[in-house]
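The instructor's notes for this session suggest beginning with a concrete chain rather than abstract definitions. Hand out the sequence below and ask the class to guess, before any prediction is shown, which regions might be ordered.
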Amino acid sequence: MTPAQVNPTSIYLEVAEIRVTDPIGFEAAVTAARPHFLAAEGCLGLSLHRLVEAPDTYRLLVKWRSVEDHTVTFRASEGFQKWRELASPFFAGPPSVTHSAAVDLD
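After discussion, reveal the predicted structure:
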């Protein structure tokens, strides 16, 4: 049996797991940074989730048209610099970032 194939029309999901020092401050920073993500080429939306088991840890989920839209285009942009300027003061350590794509289970 082979693994299911990635759907070629898939949206790519960035999952950034971020442990923070000040949840209220971090949530405000993400709110302020949201327009910079949404204005980025290839960004299709984002949401922020707080872990129930670890309330100082969040998962920022960002939908991208391609991985390169995130890792190349956005990271080289002024919007990314603004995001880091707003949010990084609240990071307890470096975020862990991965990308995934839906697999075709049919």
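Then share the key points. Residues 12-101 form a domain with the Alpha-Beta Plaits fold (CATH 3.30.70.100). The chain is about 30% helix and 30% strand.
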